Design the sequence.
C-alpha cells in the first residue's frame, strides 16, 4: 500500500521562549481514500472526530506566546497519536457501539500505513523541535493542549479546565496556581482525566527528564465562540509565560 504522509502543522517554528505546545487532536482530516471512514457526515462535528475548538485555541495562543506549536490535523479516528500503538483504541473500531466501517475492515497493512502516514511524522517532528528547545534552554516546558466534552456518559463535569500529569507535577502546579487567581473558574488537578496510568505524548517525549510537562483540558463548551477562545488563549498565554519566567529565574 502506498503511504501518503500527513505532516503536522507547525506554528512559530523558530519560537524564542523556552517551551513547546503540542495539540494531538486538532483536526478532522481524513485521507481521501478512507471516505470519511464510512461514517455519516454528522459525526464530523462531534468530539469523537477531534477536540472541538482546540485548533482555533492553539492558533490564537500561538499569536500570544512565542513558542513552537505542533498540531496533528488528522482525525483521531484515523489514528490517535496520543495512544500507544498496541492500544486497541489507537484505531477504534466503533463509537459507543456504532461501527466505524473503514476501521472494522482494516488489516495489519492498513494499520502500518496509517502509522507511517500520521503517527510517526507527528512524533518525529515533535521530537525534533523538543530536542532543539532542550538544547537552547535549561528548563523548557512541554504543554499538551486538549479540549473535552462537558457532559460525558450522562455525567456533567464541573471542571472548566484541568491538568493531566504523570511523571512531573511542576508544570501542573504552576498552571493551577496562575489560573486559580481568576475568580469563577473550576479547575481540576489530574481531572477530568488522570495521567497517572500513562499519558502517551507527554510521557514519550519527557518522561524521566525532570522537565516541567503536563497536558491540559479545556471544557469545549467554553470554546464555542470566538470570544471564549480568546479568553482562554489569554489565560493560557499568561500562565505559560509566567511559568517560563519562574522556571528560568
Sequence:
Amino acid at each position: 500500500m502506498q503511504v501518503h504522509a500527513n505532516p503536522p502543522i507547525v506554528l512559530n517554528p523558530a519560537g524564542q521562549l523556552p517551551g513547546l505546545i503540542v495539540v494531538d487532536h486538532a483536526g478532522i482530516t481524513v485521507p481521501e481514500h478512507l471516505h470519511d471512514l464510512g461514517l455519516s457526515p454528522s459525526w464530523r462535528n462531534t468530539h469523537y472526530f477531534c477536540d472541538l475548538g482546540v485548533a482555533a485555541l492553539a492558533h490564537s495562543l500561538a499569536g500570544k506566546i512565542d513558542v513552537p506549536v505542533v498540531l496533528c490535523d488528522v482525525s483521531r479516528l484515523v489514528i490517535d497519536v496520543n495512544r500507544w500503538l498496541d492500544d486497541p483504541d489507537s484505531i477504534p473500531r466503533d463509537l459507543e457501539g456504532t461501527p466505524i466501517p473503514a476501521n472494522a475492515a482494516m488489516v495489519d497493512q492498513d494499520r502500518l500505513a496509517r502509522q507511517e502516514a500520521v503517527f510517526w511524522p507527528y512524533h518525529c517532528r515533535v521530537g525534533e523541535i523538543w530536542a532543539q528547545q532542550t538544547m537552547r534552554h535549561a528548563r523548557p516546558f512541554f504543554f499538551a493542549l486538549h479540549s473535552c466534552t462537558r457532559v460525558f456518559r450522562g455525567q456533567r463535569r464541573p471542571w472548566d479546565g484541568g491538568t493531566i500529569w504523570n511523571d512531573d507535577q511542576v508544570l501542573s502546579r504552576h498552571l493551577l496556581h496562575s489560573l486559580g487567581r481568576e475568580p469563577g473558574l473550576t479547575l481540576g488537578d489530574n481531572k477530568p482525566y488522570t495521567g497517572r496510568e500513562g499519558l502517551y505524548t507527554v510521557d514519550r517525549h519527557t518522561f524521566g527528564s525532570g522537565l516541567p510537562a503536563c497536558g491540559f483540558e479545556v471544557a469545549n463548551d467554553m470554546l464555542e465562540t470566538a470570544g471564549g477562545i480568546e479568553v482562554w488563549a489569554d489565560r493560557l498565554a499568561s500562565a505559560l509565560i509566567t511559568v517560563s519566567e519562574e522556571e528560568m529565574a
User: Anything to note?
Assistant: Residues 108-136 form the longest helix (29 residues).
